[in-house]
Design a protein that fits this description.
The protein is an alpha/beta fold and 270 residues long. The protein has two domains: 107 residues, Ribosomal protein L30/S12 (60s Ribosomal Protein L30, Chain: A, 2-Layer Sandwich); 148 residues, Alpha/beta knot. The protein has eleven helices and eleven strands. The strands form two sheets. A seven-stranded parallel β-sheet has the order 7-6-5-10-8-11-9, with helices on both faces. It has a four-stranded mixed β-sheet with strand order 1-4-2-3, with helices on both faces. The chain is elongated, with a radius of gyration of 21 Å.
Length: 270
């Protein structure tokens, strides 16, 4: 019965209030903050949002996607979710990918919460990162490695569509804290007894392969082009570096973060 009701009410107009809201949220951080909402695009990440009960306010599917995925998606608990079916043409207009699956969502931004520090916790601080793809990939890698929390300080918007898409659903599973006040960030770590390491390319820094972390640890990863500011590196407990071969002296921020987080977690298991 629901199938026929939905398909009899296919939305075709870009002036539909929900479609207009989706486009505002997709294009503007200001609108995301104002409404406390962000957008999803893609089957897998929408399934993750439903599975993790992540506050999906709207589930939007093109007619083609509804016929292909609707039976599966509508098995979720959608009591607090409004479901819409839109035309395939309208789906292509609101999509941010070239080959859209026709599945979209609007999610509630979760309320800010105080960081939770676990025994022997491992944390990564993304300090001043501006590439959404890097931020999303680091969050995904942190989720895969079992990092206990990610802190964003002066980095790009966590809820931008590209960051969300790049996390591949890990944004709903990883503990992520936005702390843009540097002094407060260091105070949080100090009170919790978290040792801090600054990832640098200095040849006199401690090699990550020689690092033997104990207790709670956080590693700071800096901006893609400029790295960590010197004053931030000096405020950390130590400076660490990834040894590199030949004349190479830097790595992509996401790649470097992956190596650093792997070493933190690997040493914890030894």
């Amino acid at each position: 019965m629901e199938v026929f009701v939905l398909l009899d009410n296919i939305i075709t107009s870009k002036d539909n209030p929900v479609i207009k809201l989706y486009q505002k949220l997709a294009s503007s951080k200001k609108e995301r903050l104002q409404y406390g909402l962000f957008v999803l695009e893609g089957l897998r990440i929408t399934e993750d949002a439903l599975r993790e009960e992540s506050g999906l306010s709207h589930l939007i599917m093109t007619k083609q996607a509804y016929e292909k995925y609707g039976a599966e998606l509508l098995q979720a608990d959608l009591r607090d979710t409004k479901t819409l079916v839109i035309s395939n043409e309208l789906g292509n207009k609101i999509a941010s990918t070239n080959t859209t699956q026709g599945v979209f969502g609007i999610c509630r931004i979760p309320p800010e919460r105080e960081p939770v520090f676990t025994d022997n916790g491992r944390y990564a601080v993304l300090y001043g990162l501006q590439d959404p793809g890097n931020v999303g990939m680091i969050i995904r890698t942190a989720d895969a490695l079992g990092i206990d929390g990610i802190f964003l300080c002066g980095s790009c918007d966590l809820y931008s569509p590209k960051v969300i898409r790049s996390t591949m659903g890990s944004v709903f599973r990883e503990n992520i804290y936005i702390v843009n006040d540097t002094d407060r960030l260091f105070e949080l770590f100090s009170v919790a007894g978290v040792e801090t390491s600054a990832a640098v390319i200095d040849t006199d820094a401690l090699r990550i392969t020689s690092y033997r972390p104990e207790g709670r640890q956080a590693v700071f990863i800096g901006n893609e082009g400029n790295g960590l500011p010197r004053d931030i590196a000096l405020r950390c407990t130590r400076r660490i570096t990834i040894p590199m071969n030949g004349t190479i002296n830097s790595l992509n921020a996401a790649m470097a973060a992956g190596i650093l987080m792997w070493e933190l977690c690997k040493k914890q298991e030894v």
